[in-house]
Write a structure and sequence with these properties.
Elements lengths: L13 H11 L4 E8 L2 E7 L1 E6 L2 E6 L2 E7 L4 E4 L5 E8 L4 E9 L5
Antiparallel strand pairs: 1-2, 1-8, 3-4, 4-5, 6-7, 7-8
Amino acid sequence: MFSLFKKKKEAPTKSERRKKAMELHGQLIKYVTERRDGNDDVVGRGGNLSVRNGELIVFSSADIIFRGNIDELEISSLMSGDGVVISGYNAVDGKQREIIAYYVYHRK
């Protein structure tokens, strides 16, 4: 019954996506995980998040783990504030991926 009254979330605009990505620019990360077959696998340790030429780049374990166009990514913060979920097309391996980057230290 209550589902009739819920509003659907609108997709974020390009400017909102760019703003969120710029907030992440330079953020140091402790580790990066990816959900595979129901398990969270660590795919990288240490690194940072960077925005260059309209792309969000996740650099970890001396490799580029994820690279995607900001306008096409879905970016959302974890409720704890300890990291961010990034999902979208990954230009590094040519696949749709969802990764979670955990920050080194988060202070509110």
